[in-house]
Records
---
Amino acid sequence: MKLVEHAILLPCHSLEDFPMHHTGRSAEGLLCAWSALWHPGLISETGKSPAVYRVDDPPQDVTGMLILVPGICVEEIPTDLADRVAEQGAVLIKDAVDRNQVLEQISQSLDESLRTDFSSKLPEIIADFHALGTCFLMTELLTRRMRYMSNLDEAQFRESLVAAAMAWQASQESESTEHLQRCFDLLLEARSHFYPVDTHLIDLTLIAETTLGETLRRELLGRHPLNLMASADLVDRIAATQPATLGLLKERLAAEQLSLVGGEYREEVLPLRSLESIFANFRLGHETCQQQLGHHARVYGRRKFGLSPILPQILRGLGYQGALHYTLDDGRFPELHQSKVWWEGSSFASLDVLGKVPLDAGSAATVLSLPEKLGESMDYDHVSVLVFAHWPGQSSVYFDDLRRVHSYAPVLGRFVTLEDFFAKTDSVGQLTKFSPDKYRSPYLRQAVRAKQANFLSSVQRELELRQAINETIALTSSARLLKPSHAGESTNVEELSAALIKADLTDDQQYRQLRSNIQQAAEAAREQLAGTVAPESVAGTPQGLLFCNSMNFTRQMLVDVSELGVLPKVGQTVLATDETEGVRSAIIQVPPFGFAFVSDLESPPAEKASKKPSGSKSLLQDLIMDNEQVRVTIDPDTGGIRSINDFRTRGNRLTQQIALRLPTPAMPADSWKETEPAYTVMAADSITATKSTSLVAELTSRGRLMHPAGEVLGTFVQQTRITHGSRVVEIDIELEPIAPLYADPWESYYACRFAWPGDLDEMRRSVHGASHVTDAVQLEAPDFLELVTDRTRTALLFNGLPYHVRAQHRMLDSLLVVRGETARKFRLAVGIDIQRPWQAAAELRTIVSANCGMRAIPSGAKQGWLLHVDAQNVSVTNWTPILDEGRVIGYRCRLQEMAGQAARANVRSLRDITLAQRIDFSGEPCERLTFSGDQVTVELGPYEFLEIDVQW
């Protein structure tokens, strides 16, 4: 067939009403039909650009015509068109969606001379022609979307287009490219009439373990700037298994044509981690990328949900240029009012973030709707930007057209790396701040739907082991600061920290092994500290029990002192004692980051001590436990807590039970007001006193969880305990579920239920250990939840249990078991009017023993502290010595404000100070601090997390 004209039939009168709203196959068909006609062979043969006709009004004479009809308008084709096509020797191709297949069909209808070169001659130039066709359509549609008339010099454009096609026909590659360049320049000039500033295009490539091979290498060989979202564990995997890919990554990074997006070693459940855990994950990620690539991420982003208001200050401290403020898998996050803003976190720190949710680069609909998306960004964004996300090799052919357009001219936008984007663009002037309640992770539902075992346990285990590592670091630091000769001794704490980040804590065996290793390290650090405080006990020398405190606050502990000959004397360290059935116990007080000796040197003779212990009467009377701070009454029918009372206010503070939430009709996920859920009934079979002394009281309840119809759906053992002088009520639960659980973990679970009698002034939950106001219904709070009125503060301490739901107005369910969870033992607690619930939460979680054993009592101080912070709302999260050639010259510590109140903290240490400065999280000095003697003063804003460097 001698080709005279090539045309597309469209269901619109003109480009003014071009259908951009289609998706799926319809979008593929539209773009396929349009761009396929922009083949240089067709243009050179006809000597003109493709024609456009209405589908309901095609030409009457179709002799020598090639006609493409998208699938969306096949039904509107005139009934006689097919006959005319057959009679007049034309070609009609309908409902095609694959451009390569369409081109093959077209080539079969052409003359032999043209068919031979149709796909083989200068294939890169052919692809550039198709990209030009896509670009022309997008530019014209964008012009109309921006309410402008086209300013394209159509005559010059057609002349250059035909000249480029004729050069291709003559195999003149450079001349064809030159004419194509002129076409793209003309389109750029036309676009610049209504929007003279470049739009920024972000090509974001996601990778996983299954996408590290050839497809990723091909992606890296592209000509345009790329952004690779990769956690450091994937970089490790590439280095180990894909050396060629690693080499390409290094080349693109060195040429500044690639931005590494990420930062962490692994994409963990960030909103449920402590700040030290988050910091350790980032540090290991940076070290890994620096080692493998010579470059670490400077833009934060991740595929799994990982947004939290704590991030801006951590990322700023680590030197990040910006972050991506959106999630790519699920979860809830607040939308930004602009594509690029300053995100202010919980503290005053802020960071440049990009909040434009990515478009799917693998979808033709994304390209078809590009004029609309670009127009919205040009109209409303301070910085016009679009983000496209895809897996390696999974972008659509039409997105590849956009990449080719970029190599000629930024007609539709300029592809940039995220590092360039943040460095070279401005944000709106105002700060944007969101409360933690605006962010909700999808982890729980995802884990249950994926049939992941022990998800709740893994959160508890990580918090427990991370705290144990931090305590081990504190013990090691104490020993080094007391005895500089220990400074050069090796420690495996860093290796254990890395192992914790890499471990699968849903696996019971991995958890037990790692827990054992960390406890061994803690025991070694405790023994090292004990050796610096006092020598080992020798027969004939004064001896005593040495206890250490690896936390940054004073601890009161119930300890066994049976190794002593008689009960120790009550005094500054020993607050109370008791001897029952040959077991000697004491309540002792140990200063922060310090130690204390307990001895019987000043005790009365043994015969007198045994007759008159210092403790008072038993704390237990029937089903009532009373330590003069709180009174706990156990319900004889349920075995749960009937009431908790203080001695300041009237009335019950809290009631507690165990229950299974039964299936109910569907109700809104965010509302406890619509329908009251149904629960099992807690029925006690026995309640026995398992501890009853003047220092501790414990009642153990055993029973069943009963369906209202009488069926047994679970059994339980609950131990409720109080100690002398403490405001904390401990609850140990052993649960044996019987009933199967359903797929929605927020509506089918075994829980520890709490109820309170009156309205609250506010509720506060832990976020990375600190206390934040909340009004959420589904709560993430692994440490604590505070119920606050004008006169009372009741703290629910969860020991790492992360999820809770306000099932009713004055009731809270703490989820113990959901589908897939195998843990059966749980520890919780209730704190009555404690001012620092984060400290009580840390004590409840600790697995590091404070008992250093019998030691020879030194002639010096019998107790002491090594680091002290006077601000009660400031915690020391990490404390390490500064070494210079093996010599201790000072210390470095990280501080966290916990209550949302500005603080002026005085930090005291062992010796007079010669230099004190605040440093960023990369170790660079950023502010000199005021100091006097052994004390340095640090100003902290609400929820601020910072690091200081102090030298002696």
---
Amino acid sequence: MCLAWLCLIPFSGNAATPMIVAGENESLFLNSDGSAWGTGNVTNYWPGATSPVRILQLPNVIAVATGDWANFALLADGTVWGLGNNDKHQLADGTTQGRSEPQRIPGLSDVKAFSAGSDHRLALRNDGTVWGWGNNKSGQLGDGTQIDRDVPVQVSGLANVTRIAASFGPTSLALKSDGTVWMWGNNCCGQAGNGLFPSNPSDPESNHLIPTQVLNLDRVVAIAAGSHHNMALRDDGTVWSWGRGDLGQNGTGRLMHEYLPVQVLGLEQVIAIDAGAAESSFAVKADGTVWAWGSNSQGLLGVSGISYSAAPIQVPGLSGIAAISASPNHILLMQRDGTVLAWGLNNYGQLGDGTLQVRTDARAVSGPGGSGQLNLLRLAPTVFNRLPQAQISLSAASGRAPLSVTASVRNASDPDGTIAAYYWTSAVGQQATGSSATFTFTQAGTYQIDLLIEDNSGARGHAAQSIVVAPAAAAAVAVSPKVGMGAQGSIALTNDGRILTWGGWGDIGPYGSLQYGETNSIPIANGITGAVDIAKVHGVAHVLMADGTVLGWGYNEVGEVGSGSTANWVSQPELLPNLPPVQALATSGSHGLALTSDGRVFAWGGNTSGQLGLGDYQNRFQPVEVPGLNNVTAIAAGGGFSVALKTDGTVWGWGGGLQLGGSTSISLNRPIQIPGFTNISRIFATDIVVIAQDANGAAWVNGSVGFPFAPDPSGGPGAGRFPAFDGLVRIAGRTGTGRFIVALKADGTVWTGGLQISLALGHANSGDIAGLRQLPGISDAIDIAAGQNGAMALRRDGTVLAWGLNNYGQIGDGTLAYRQTPVLVVNETASGFLDLIPEVPNNIPADRIPPFLLATYADGSLSSTTLYADLRGIISSGSFASNDFGKFAAGYNVYVAANVPAIAASPFFQLNANNAWSVLQWPMSAFMSGVALDSQNDVVRTQILQNADLSSPTFAGASILVGYGTDPDEMIRAARYRTIFTVTQQ
């Protein structure tokens, strides 16, 4: 049986097999004459070409690939060439310098196939071995390590490989000549296909560092790698899938992960497959029809009116298809006659139809120069109409909403004709024609203005310019300050409505200067004013504004931001649509809830357990009203469920894990009253349980809390009496894996209990704590928050205490060191302490004041860490002077030491002035000498690590200390040293 799509094409033996490749923001086409073409954001054509342009002008090209903003060509002589971005060593030349002309990838020869993922690349040599380079955090390079590689390394233990696939996620696949499939890289959702799943992120099963065989598969002839799921095509024309399945991407008819390969429903006589569209899957049958399943984000399934399909559905209006290529935002098809079709996102012109319009149905890709139709079986023209070009000038590059901006054309030209017209569009849908246009932006965010330049032959060039719109200036509001904590970052609301954030780049959100891999160990103001409430869990944050509107940003894989954006990450605050005036927010991290002023509930985000209460299991990327709920006074969100409290004291729940009598957990996709809860006045939710207090302050729990809390068996069905939670005014934490509880009592005391592994108990060397134990020294707290591995308490004077894991700076004390006990969060300049209520005089106990203040910064991955710190002093009394509370005297030295517990014989090391580490000897060497700071406005910067590889298990738990003194002994006597960094292996 002939399964290759090529068998369906009358092929005349030209130089190359025609090829289509859909990238993240570009499309590549290989003509049968060996010429390579591209549309969208291909190299040298930013922001994108709206019709095919010639790229990779090399002789004898037999394959093309694209990924991570770089384009690649495989030549008939077995060499691989690349051009484009090189900031992550995409071109493997030992530099980070981008290239505008193709250059050969060093160290690769005799290559017969090549695959580029979103952040790593694979090459298959004729001897059947596989080589890779790029990001390796999940072991996707298969060399037995998690060390990033900037030159090709051999994948361990693979031979006789015939096909390879590098996914848009951190996973790789290989097909051997015996028909077996092998996988390496991330296995969060069953991508390994071995029947196993990781119990936690540190489980070795989470990341396969060397290839392992996918079970129960043989006679495979083709493979496809999605971001979190994989597919295989067998020689009998059946398709098999495994991995993540919450959006139906496995095609089994059910929404669940598959840890072993399962056959896709109803598909036979398949000749081609692809899973490159992140969470969608595609197949082409021998009759030329196209079938799709999984997520329908951006209409990728080619139909409208559904969010996903858990079983294959035929894409309407298509026949005679021979090949398919899918990316996370658009789809390419090649017909048997060599013509190419496309649909999906088109913001860079990647659909090649001369426009920037999103397409939900397949349209023809135009020919070079914008005329005719692209046909990869015909000789490409050697002379064709060149695209016109221009630049955009803006009257303002930024400003506060509402902002009106005039955009004008400059430097317009056409290399082989004249300019005929200009077409303008903005990211908010405004359109105009002519040499200039004015746009008005009423909401905060980053927006793009696009310009299409049309020449006299109808070809269109593309120019773009971004504009940053800050929130409208808001009158100061008097609000109750509040704190929040996520997995990598934290947030605070001041009493005048400002928002501050700190932590890792992936959790801080808008208006910060952080880039990928960077951290911020001190708070920064993110530009939002006029806020009245915040909600934060894991990597998403929401802010309630004084006018009842809601802003959101952060991780958005399943719509948890709720702004309508389908991007995986929303970096700027976006307005949530469809919401009446809101009075309260709740979020679980994967889904969000809003309580409106008239007592209704709206929900958005992940819905795999029915936690949105809409009667189905489809995710929503913007708020939708939960039907049947009214007179609601409070809301709470758990890991996969939601709860609401009504004015009559009843509690209503929906989603997974609720108990409705007895002890059996069930899932509901519609709200239902939870039995056993009556006369309730306050509700809380952890990741797996509902906690309710009645009017007398007595606490009841729906669900199984487990250690460290045991319920009183009395109580109604589905609810157990929990005296340990009586009278608490706030409860935070987790009761599932790594469970812990942080609780606030009405008297201002803070109590914790649970497992020490959570790192959030706040007691030094306490071990596990059964029940609740009071944190010493806190008697005036007014708010608490808990993250994944830490917690915070806001004191009555506006200062904030935090403790727990601090690898991203989420504690906010100016360091990146784990803190077992509460420490003070510093202010935006590390010149004092964070104060959310500046009108109230601070009352800081002397034992809370550190020996000096600092701000620590880290950049890069664990295998390439750059670390430095800005040091500031505090006068010896520990109190602050009015203008200049701390400074170094001339003659002080700065000392840097490291403690590596795994090296038992000699765990302490010192860093000298030449940036050389050695075993610590006394008196220790000075890192900086004769330091003087004359003003608190000055700092001493210590550059400690530069691209250091800390990925070895030897460094797990290692810490770096910095101190200063006239000599080492004086530093020790004055206790003027601090741990600023702890190596956390993740």
---
Amino acid sequence: MRSARLLGICLTLASSALVLSGCDVFISADGRVERARGELAKGDYQAAVIDLKNALESEPEHVQARLLLAQASLRVGDVKDAEKELRRAREAGAKPAEVAELSAETQLALGQGRELLAQIDSNQLALVEPLRSIYRGEALLLLGKPDDAAAAFDAAQRASPRARALIGLARARAGQRRADVALKLLEGVPENSPDHAAALLCRGEILAAQGRFADAGVTLQSALAARANLTIFQQANLLAILTESQLAAGDVNAARTSLQSLAQLAPNAPITLLLGARVAMAAQDYATATAGLQRVVAGMPDFIPARFLLGAALIAQGNLNQAESHLTRVIQLAPDNLEARKLLARVRLRMGQPDAALELLSPLQADADADVNSLIGLAHLQLGDSGKALSFLERNASGAGTNREKQLELAATYLRAQAYRKAVLLLRDIPHVDGDAQRDALLIAAVAAADGLEKSDAEMKSLLDAHPKDLALLNAASLFLAQRSEFERARVLLGRALAVQPGDTDTLLNSARIETAAGDAATAAARLQGILASHPEHVPARMGLAQLALQANDLKGAATALEPLRKQDPKAIAPRLALARIYMLDQRVDDAAGVITELEKLTPGNAAVANAIGLLYLDSARYDEAAARFKKAIDIEATNAQYWMNQARAQLALDRRSLARESLEKAHAVRPDSVMVIASLAMLDVRDGRPAAGAQRIAEMRKAHPDDPSLLALEGDFYAANHDFEAASRSFDAAMSMRPSAAISVRAYQARRNGNLRDAAAPLESWVAKKPDDFPVQAVLAEAYMNGGQTRRAQAKYEFLVDNATPNAVILNNLAWLYYQANDARAESTAAKAFQMSPTNAAIADTYGWILVERGKVADGLKIIEKVQGNAGPDVKYHYAAALARSGNVNAAKPLLKTLAESSDTSTAQADARRLLQELSTR
């Protein structure tokens, strides 16, 4: 009974459906086609598509149904379906005249301008005038030929004036940079014309191209109101241009609304994703922008606007390696893209590749604009040529008017070039801006360099009094004080900043940096943890914690700090590279391999990442794996000399000198003027017993660039490698006279010391007399005094460094040893500080442990030395054996001493071991 009841209900419903449908099932194919024509005329394209598909189900060879379905498919934006229906219409017997116009429209929609033009000119399409000339003009516009397009539209107008030809002619005139003529032509399209919306769209496009974005927005809104007469492609184009105009006018909210409408029409279209990225970037949401652009680039690898914008978005996120890869591809596709060249040059400068930046910019020097001059100047500055740098940057500033960015860039260059007075005068003319402390920070530094710290303090006080609640200024001033090791004053300013805005992440981050510089790692870590408590995704804070952990040799802590970044962003490259390095340092081979595998899957075609992984392996002495990664980078980008250089380094480490020479020659072919490449080849010549060949390379470079001090320094290195230390010293001295630098002063000292020449420390003394705050060179000078037996001068220099420079375990260790030799009571406490900073360093632990032993604290000292003596040198092993003996464990000490005494080593440890062994034997 139950199944019969259900059957009855089903029959009732079925008969009701027939009644409600108006017997639609009995409509013929021709009837459906006629109904579809009416639906198309009313703009009801989806209903037309349904009717036409039903018609074709009953009559698959219905030509008119196929043609109308192609037309409807075009209207709803389904170009591939339109193309397919046209093909089937031809197969069903459609005449050439019936398919000609639809075929032309479809090819235009597919962007097949070249194919359409060829078919029109060969009369394959049965088009008559004026349509023949109209479609010919639109094909020529697609091909970027406005002059020929204008002639075609003129011919169409002469044949039979139509609004579409007039609009096409306006677009051609705009392409000829005759925008005023184009706008005047569009006035000829009457408001009651079906093409009026298309004319408004064209007008809006021209206005936007002129930079008249407000006018463009008004016009495009009018076109939007009349969009029923526009194809879906025209509507999408309208919304795209409207979104661009609103973005350019700074109305991000309006742009977002227009973009949402565009996304409803074409959610996955490249232009939609591109504009979505631009809207996201306007809101500084670079992660969203990057995700959208990566989708575009994945589907359209050579779509230049998407690659270019992706490069910019990656730069904003600090992903310079990825940005360089994308921008390099943009330059390959469009060598004339000036903005891409500028952006890539900036990236390479930030990556410390001034030669590569200059290579990009050199073709632009003849007609250089302010940006190019600025970038060229900065590149020369990185290369150490202050004269050329100032020449370009002053040229840039002369045309920059009151451009704040350019003026600040020039002021910074004046500082680096030691033109301090010029910097002060320029900076005083630049007004203060709340929240932007770059000018104030430069001014404080310039006054300090030009007039001394007292005047600098007065300048700082004046600025802070005038702007007591400027967070950026308070932070900048605190960092300046921290550079002078005035940590208490710096802390006071940061306290004021936090009072103005409690919990400000920038202030807390700077506080962590200052505490790190002051040697208070615990407080620095607390500041960073405070940031992460409220902002767990804060990348700089996590990277800071990892750095602190590394400084404390806490590799597990560093990994713990970085792992959340890896999980937070499944595509983040920089944290993964840092994490892989940490795992390698910690000998967590499998973990490192896992991270590297992730990186390689994330960036299969990224040469920069392959190179970075190679460098990780190189640092870990895994030379075969390093060479494989460098080869991968070269396979992707064979024109990068640095990759060839890195491969040569790995090959040399494996003693594959012939292969290394090939790699270096490849690098030389790419960058024949690279000093680094020439130096490497010259040094390889020395190693291969061909010093004359190396000398000739350098001589040729010197002849081509007689005023280049870097070549003199290279010549010094070459002579030093060849053990001609007198010649090396002369070359270094000449280089120092042309362009003094810290690096050359150190190399000059080493040459003199290795050659037992007089006044070995003189180059260092000359440099620090000019640059007393160059603490690294001061440290080398202290060591030079120590090695030269000038213990008083060495002690004084190390005390100066302890009082003025950032706390350093090696400096404290060396000072402790000098105190120990002088029987100074401060030896133990100083050694303890060094050991606390670097407890796993064998030499530092040995100094502290031995001083404890010598002070009678044998058990404590022995315990410390015992932990580090396993793989240490003979001096540490001797101290361990001597400490064992002093502790009463003579039996354990004797075998160690015997091994040292019988070794081939001729150090003082051998003599001390023999003496102590003899003493123990007589007891």
